UniProtKB/TrEMBL annotation:
One MF term in the entry's GO annotations: transmembrane transporter activity
Biological source species: Mycetocola miduiensis
Keyword check for Methyltransferase: no
The protein, known as: Ribose transport system permease protein
Main localization, broad class: membrane
PANTHER family: ABC TRANSPORTER PERMEASE PROTEIN YPHD-RELATED-RELATED, RIBOSE IMPORT PERMEASE PROTEIN RBSC
Length: 327
């Protein structure tokens, strides 16, 4: 064997490793790269895309999805999934509407909304952590329960809400940043701190990485799983307030788009669906990307029938890229 032949496998191996590193880079940064690409494309195709008014509108529209994506990130980091999160938000919104209608005032109505949503999260945690029901079946069941309860207690009718506090939440801003996106950003910062700077966050990641190893090291996987589903539901209750503020009423009809997009944002953000790999900033950027995509297509006059197709293609591409993420 000549010297050149002996070195050829090494060169080939080096080339393959170099390509793998490149793919890994794209996989790890799919959300920010995709968002930048969308901004460039839509700003060229639509002059109104980067106007201050449209940017503010996009940020306000993204606030609900950001909160839900952060909520879903906690659950998915443990290797679970919450299919009931959108229905939980809807039930929380109806709880707020009924409490407001009964004259309880904004603060108490908001607390009732969050507590109402929290009941669904507690049910999810008990079913999955204590009852050992698979997360898919448990949250699919509570999705139906929450949807049914929202329709029953509201008689299937929207509950108009006219609140000065919600009006401020809807119209108030600091520069181009409306209060909803500021609230979502605060939630994101707190979530990041909890996930990466507290013992609980480390336990969440440990349970998702290997539940057996986590238990062997003294971590209560049962408590961690119950906690993440409760956190997700409480955040869904907060998202319910943003939803009511945006719509001006408590709508009892579930919006499945929020469910699908919350999972999509987490996938785009680089959180592994198998658990163990936590990210908070990634899902937030993923939520912004999906909002920008929908907004840009709307400005270009693309039919709403095609928008779910575009979102689906982006998510599938992101899911394929996750195969090349660093372990």
């Amino acid at each position: 064997m000549t010297k050149i032949e002996a070195e050829r496998p090494t060169t080939t191996t080096s080339s393959i490793l170099g390509q793998a590193r490149q793919i890994s880079f794209w996989a790890e940064n799919a959300a920010p790269i995709g968002l930048i690409a969308l901004v460039i494309v839509f700003s060229i195709l639509s002059p109104s895309f980067l106007t201050l008014g449209n940017i503010r509108a996009m940020l306000v529209a993204a606030a609900i999805l950001i909160v839900l994506a952060v909520a879903q990130a906690f659950v998915i980091t443990t290797g679970g999934i919450d299919l009931s999160i959108s229905a939980t938000m809807t039930l929380g919104a109806v709880g707020f509407g009924l409490a407001w209608q009964a004259g309880y005032g904004f603060i108490l109505s908001a607390i009732i909304a969050i507590l109402t949503a929290g009941v669904i999260g507690l049910a999810n945690g008990l079913l999955i952590a204590k009852g050992k029901v698979t997360d898919f079946i448990a949250t699919l069941g509570t999705l139906s329960v929450a949807t049914g309860l929202a329709l029953i207690i509201s008689n299937g009718k929207p509950i108009p809400v006219s609140s000065s506090e919600l009006l401020v939440l809807t119209s108030g801003s600091i520069g181009i940043f409306g209060y909803p996106i500021i609230l979502a950003a605060i939630i994101g910062v707190v979530a990041w701190f909890v996930m990466f700077r507290t013992r609980f966050g480390l336990h969440v990641q440990a349970v998702g990485g290997s539940e057996e190893s986590a238990v062997a090291n003294g971590i209560s996987a049962t408590r961690v799983r119950m906690a993440v589903y409760l956190i997700a539901a409480v955040l869904a209750g907060v998202a319910a307030l943003l939803l009511v503020a945006r719509v001006g009423a408590a709508e009892p009809a579930i919006n499945t788009q929020f469910l699908l997009n919350s999972i999509a944002a987490v996938v785009l953000g680089g959180v592994s669906l198998t658990g163990g790999k936590a990210k908070i900033v990634g899902p937030i950027i993923g939520a912004l990307l999906l909002t920008a995509l929908t907004n840009g297509l709307t400005l270009l006059g693309v039919s709403q029938f095609y928008q779910p197709l575009a979102v689906g293609l982006v998510v599938v591409l992101a899911a394929l890229l996750t195969r090349f993420q660093k372990k």
